[in-house]
Amino acid sequence: MVKNKICGYIFGILFSAAMVLGYQLETYDHLTLSSISGILIFIGMALVVGTLAPFGWKFFDRLLEVKSKEIKVSNTTGRSNIAAKLSAYFDEASDKRYWLTIWIILILLQIPVLLAEFPGFFCYDAQDELNQVLTRNFSTHHPLVHVLILGGNIAFMHKLTGSWNAGICFHLTMQMLFMTGVFAYAILYLRKNIAKKLTDNDKTIYRGHKVLRVLAVLFFGMFPTIVMYTLCSTKDGLFSTFLLLLVIELMKMMRDTENFFKFKRHIFLLIFSAMMMSLLRHNGFYAYIVFIPLGVFALRKYLKKALIVFLIPVVLSVVIESGLTAILNADSSEHQEMITVSIMQLARTWRYTPEDFSDEDKEVLLSLLDERALGTYEIRAADYMKSFFNNAYYEENSSAYWKLWAKMMVSHPMTYINGWLLTCYPYWYPFAVINPYRGHQMPTFTYEDSSYFEYEVEPPGERHTLAFGFIDKLYYKMSLTPFQQTMPVISLLFSMGFYFWVWMYFAFYSITRRRLRVCLPLMPVFLTWLTLMLGPVSLIRYMLILWYLMPLMPVFFRHLQMMGESD
């Protein structure tokens, strides 16, 4: 009881701080820590949430303690009811047939969106990645593996058909097939873990929790945030899909480690998913590196096997990345992605207090970022600042840069805190409206009140709505207006911050049950989230995994229950 109360109030303090600070950043574009009303709201909310949180955990305890009712195997022969026959089909289907059926359903659910948005969403640096392949002028600014996949697919189909749209559609269709295949694999895992397994005449039957499985299919197949990125050229959809696959394999490993190492396909999927997430985003690589000692410690009973399996993806990703960089003679001189936060902090300090820079300070700053670049400072996005950053000067004078950064930090601490938090608070504030690109000019539109999604087909592609025009209008509205982000309750389903706190609540619940090991498969996700706290901008595409994981939450509860039963 005491532990529950302590965990409850710790959760309440963290949640309350996120709500108050997030509101201030969203409303005023800076923190107002001295606000009496803000302090009182923080204290009141922390007490209320901290007091109520344990009651939710007690409710979960009661749910876990309820034993599953006995399910009888009934004979459906002769029934004419279509729903009954479908139910029997999905209950009795083998794993392969079930996966294939769900995969086909997910594809069919997403085809109308592809027709409405033909050839798909070719955006988020896609044009630059394609041009690297066409001009054979590569850089490591974008992951080379993704550059080659995207550019290779599009160039190949364009060569066959003479149509860039055909090339884009081919690439995005291949991507959709892979991603929906992984989603179907997740739903199969859901069925095997929450449905009751029965046998009848040597036939395996899964019964129960059909509603959860149907909702999972509809969520993966129709929820706009998911479908947008299944049909989008950005690397982030693939990255989150591989991260989802990694989480599933880690769940299998944690649940039954002995059997996990007996199946080569599970070992292969873990290694392959970890390698690909490391190759598709640098922060994914760093997150996975930090995860390794945690995973090895949790599996210390299988120390040698776990260490080998966890380290192989690191070796493979480093070899592949360095090999591609050398073979393609890719430019790897950029540094700004790693120091985005410091750039934004200095730019904000210059924006509001340029008089505090000495002549020597100005020389250093303006050598890295000229006045035109500093004039483009935007409080929620570092994209323009990064594009103007003088990497050559930084390589020769990095010590002068960091000396200036440290000097300004001492005299402008709140400016630094604001400069940092404004680029990352939507990851933990549920009511943030994603709009860091206000005023940015795109090929076919200008961002105004929302940057939820880049509703764009960059050249050489061209959008054609082939059917389902109402879907095109809906996606436009959700992408470029605050439509769904300002709707009461509904907005939470489209919010990164909301899903983050749902999982945080589950993590605290696991602590109260002394089953934190259940959360280990989520550590690569949390570590990826932490890397985004140092990122250049807050965008939905960077944390798609929060949506992909939601259908699996019942499985986490089931694993938590099973660990309790095994003690």
SSE topology sketch:
Layout: H1 2-28, H2 36-65, H3 82-92, H4 95-116, H5 126-135, H6 144-161, H7 164-194, E1 196-200, E2 203-207, H8 210-222, H9 224-230, H10 235-255, H11 257-260, H12 264-280, H13 282-298, H14 303-327, H15 340-352, H16 359-368, H17 371-374, H18 383-388, H19 391-411, H20 413-421, H21 469-480, H22 496-512, H23 523-532, H24 545-549, H25 553-566
Antiparallel strand pairs: 1-2
Helix pairs in contact: 1-2, 1-22, 4-7, 4-8, 5-6, 6-7, 7-8, 7-10, 7-25, 10-12, 12-13, 12-14, 13-14, 13-23, 15-20, 16-19
Summarize the structure.
The protein is an all-alpha fold. Helices cover 66% and strands 2% of the residues.
Rounded to an integer in angstroms, the radius of gyration calculated over CA atoms is: 25 Å
The tally of helices reads: 25
Mean of pLDDT: 92
Fraction in beta strands = under 5%
Give me the secondary-structure category. mainly alpha
Describe the protein's architecture and organization:
The protein has three domains: 64 residues, no CATH class; 304 residues, no CATH class; 83 residues, no CATH class. Helices cover 66% and strands 2% of the residues. The protein has a two-stranded antiparallel ribbon with strand order 1-2. Strand 1 and strand 2 form a beta hairpin. Helix 1 crosses helix 2, helix 4 runs antiparallel to helix 7 and helix 4 packs parallel to helix 8.
